[in-house]
């Protein structure tokens, strides 16, 4: 091989090494950019939650949702969960009138439809629990109430939820199925108000939810009745369209539907969805 040929070969070898180094550097740089991009994407996918989550929920959810609200705040420092507990129809009317809220949890699909039919919900509401009726009597059941029919006795002062409220609609459904007619001393705006009439001894009995009898403890006595099986209410929950804090609202809904959330709700007497 001539001296000129050897020189040319060395030049090509050096050039090739330089190109390989350049390619390696380029690959490394590309990898760094890709890694950085993935990191940024991951960070944006899990934004830090803060601020207030406003939940409009059926009155019967008061105890269990209050517990879940505290758990949520503990798990997500910097957040606060505030509740508006009332009859589902009242809450639905407030939402469709523009009341600011993030989440709506109703005691029946019918009252949820008031909101979703107006386009104020996001996606399809999810049923997260179910609830069954029970008769609440005075402690010790002094009037010996053992059935739904017993509530028709003229000597008893009985309270029902208003027919527009899910617990009232369910009670009417059970009465109709049993071919019973009951004239209460009053119709109450929500299930807690109906129960409170018995707690205060202003009524002898009320048709409420099992969960409310459970929450009242020794203040009332519960009487189950078979007709309640035909009037079980599904409870749907949904993210609201104009939610001021949608990110945290979604996380609260996820907690309600999680195993931990279901554990709290089951302990309160709710049925599985």
From TrEMBL:
Keywords: Metal-binding, Signal
Residues annotated as signal peptide: 1-29
SUPFAM superfamilies: Periplasmic binding protein-like II
Ribosomal protein in keyword set: no
Organism superkingdom: Bacteria
UniProt keyword annotation of Flavoprotein present: no
PROSITE patterns (UniProt xref): PROKAR_LIPOPROTEIN (PS51257), TAT (PS51318)
Gene3D superfamilies: Periplasmic binding protein-like II
Cited InterPro entries: ModA (IPR005950), ModA/WtpA (IPR050682), TAT_signal (IPR006311)
Recorded family membership: Belongs to the bacterial solute-binding protein ModA family.
NCBIfam families cross-referenced by the UniProt entry: modA (TIGR01256)
Protein name: Molybdate ABC transporter substrate-binding protein
Origin species: Streptomyces hokutonensis
Gene, per the UniProt record: modA
């Amino acid at each position: 091989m001539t001296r000129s040929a050897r020189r040319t070969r060395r030049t090509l070898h050096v050039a090739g090494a330089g190109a390989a180094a350049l390619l390696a550097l380029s690959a490394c740089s590309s990898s760094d950019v890709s890694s950085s991009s993935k990191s940024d994407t991951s960070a944006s996918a899990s934004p830090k939650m803060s601020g207030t989550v406003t939940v409009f929920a059926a009155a019967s959810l008061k105890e269990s949702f209050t517990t879940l609200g505290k758990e949520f705040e503990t798990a997500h420092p910097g957040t606060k969960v505030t509740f508006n507990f009332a009859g589902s129809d009242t809450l639905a009317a407030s939402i469709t009138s523009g009341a600011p809220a993030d989440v709506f949890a109703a005691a029946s699909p019918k009252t949820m439809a008031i909101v979703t039919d107006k386009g104020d919900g996001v996606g399809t509401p999810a049923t997260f629990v179910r609830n069954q009726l029970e008769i609440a009597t005075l402690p010790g059941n002094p009037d010996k109430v053992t059935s739904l029919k017993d509530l028709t006795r003229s000597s008893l002062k009985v309270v029902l939820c208003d027919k527009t409220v899910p617990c009232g609609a369910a009670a009417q459904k059970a009465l109709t199925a049993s071919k019973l007619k009951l004239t209460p001393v009053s119709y109450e705006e929500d299930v807690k108000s109906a129960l409170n009439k018995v707690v205060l001894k202003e009524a002898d009995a009320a048709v409420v939810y099992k969960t409310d009898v459970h929450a009242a403890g020794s203040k009332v006595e519960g009487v189950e009745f078979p007709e309640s099986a035909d009037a079980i209410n599904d409870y749907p929950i949904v993210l609201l369209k104009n939610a001021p804090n949608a990110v945290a609202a979604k996380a609260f809904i996820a907690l309600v539907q999680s195993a931990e959330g279901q554990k709290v709700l089951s302990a309160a007497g709710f049925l599985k969805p």
